[in-house]
Specification:
Elements lengths: L1 E3 L4 H20 L2 H19 L14 E3 L17 E2 L2 E2 L22 E2 L14 E7 L8 E3 L2 E8 L2 E8 L5 E8 L17 E3 L2 E5 L4 E6 L5 E6 H5 L13 E3 L2 E5 L24 E5 L5 E5 L10 E5 L2 E7 L3 E5 L6 E6 L14 E3 L2 E5 L6 E7 L2 E7 L18 E3 L2 E6 L7 E6 L5 E5 L9 E6 L2 E6 L3 E6 L6 E9 L22 E3 L2 E5 L3 E6 L4
Parallel strand pairs: 5-31
Antiparallel strand pairs: 1-34, 2-10, 3-4, 6-37, 7-8, 8-9, 9-10, 11-12, 12-13, 13-14, 15-16, 16-17, 17-18, 19-20, 20-21, 21-22, 23-24, 24-25, 25-26, 27-28, 28-29, 29-30, 31-32, 32-33, 33-34, 35-36, 36-37
Amino acid sequence: MQSLRESGQQGYISMVARIVIRTRLREKEGSAVMLTRNLLLMFVLTALFGCANGGPTTADDTTSPTTATEPQPQPQPQPAASDSAPDGLTDLWTRQKGVDWPDFLGPNRDSKSSETGIISPWPERGLKIVWQRELHTGYGIGSISKGRLYQSERQGNKATLLCLKAETGEELWRFQYPTDYEDLLGYNNGPRCSPVIDGERVYIYGAEGMLHCLQAGNGEVLWKLDVNTKYGVCQNFFGIGSTPIIEGDLLICMVGGSPPGSPGLYESGGRIEGNGTGIVAFNKLTGEAKYEITDELASYSSPQLATINGRRWCFMFARGGLVGFEPASGKVDFQYPWRSIKLESVNAATPIVAGNEVFVSETYTIGSSLLAVKPGGYELVWSDDPSPRKPKAMMTHWNTGIHLDGNLYACSGRNEPDADLRCIDWKTGEVQWIAQLPPETRERSSLLYVDGHFVQLGEYGSLKLIRANPKKYELVSEMMMLREATNPAFEPRPLLKHPAWAAPILSHGLLYVRGDDRLVCLELIPD
């Protein structure tokens, strides 16, 4: 592995541009043929089957934890009792400082870390790589608890959860179940959601709609449910991509079921009805449904919890807009419509909460809104003009912004040509600054906040350290990890292949980033 740092900013940009352009050209070859093939297949399948309606069911009973099959020696899975202490799982961390990252976007689902002492600026050759591992198919990044990193992927026709030692990448055990999910638009068919760790349990939600609760120490199945079949979910563009959330004894999921016989997404022109199961809360210990609410359909945004003026709230940015409700009972306070009129559009960014205000954003047409919520309703603080020709304060795509000291930082833009990093005033939406790379190196990105800085991961594998400053864009360091060149006549390729769409995560000083086929662990905070 090499770390790219040519002398001088222009040299760095020039080399990155060559790498990115070459990567983009390779990806676009044959894309028209693939899209035509998948659209034809999609229309045939939706005409034949429509939605996944049916009675309650579970996954194939042959699903079970398995031992590692990698060629290198790996420890065998241990009985649950050998991996437990009186207070739960044995802690495998040897690093002295830091916190776990047990959920999507971190402990508070806000992409913020409380850790301090980061290396700044970065060394000339970049951060030290602690370990790296090839990954199979998927988009999501893992979650970390008690020194274990739980990473989802798809191996052939098997959805897989890997349990790795977070400090070394050593595999402890793996769990697999069969899947036949295929994406409607030809994107990869691996898992999108992050595992959710709750004490001695870990929850995974597959792209095909299988929901599993596993023993965190050895992968034993505690309960499982085929959500899409039970609730009649019509397949959305990219399968299931909303990570569930834990509230007390509840596991709250965005489901979005439809009545029996409902047409598919394209067959209906997007006019699919709900059946009252837009959001379903399950008993996290048994999988029993406790309540079902709203006729909303599912999106790719994950739920967010908050306490506002002493009351608990849950916010779901569903396919049609934002739903605010009381998480313990499921009592709905409001539904705020916010979605592009385009059929091929999705809501994907997680709601951001600050005080009594909630921010939502999409990238296809209408931009962003800020609401002040209250029991039974909301007041609109500000919103972008939904007209396609009007400028927007923020248009987040699959990335979720970060609120910090009265400002919001995020990548804005649907595609590479219009992508930028920007800071806006939270209360007004006024743009404070915009940082846009030259066209040849422009890319969408995700952020992690830690110790007064943002770590920015670009979708083509670039890493940047940016000082959090609402007055100006302040780049501190940048690097691009490269694969060892096999032929000196050719430039090396990025270590992280496009698409690097999952936001970076941090635990006990170790930074984890993933691209299309690789997970890399770097040391951001010395132990």
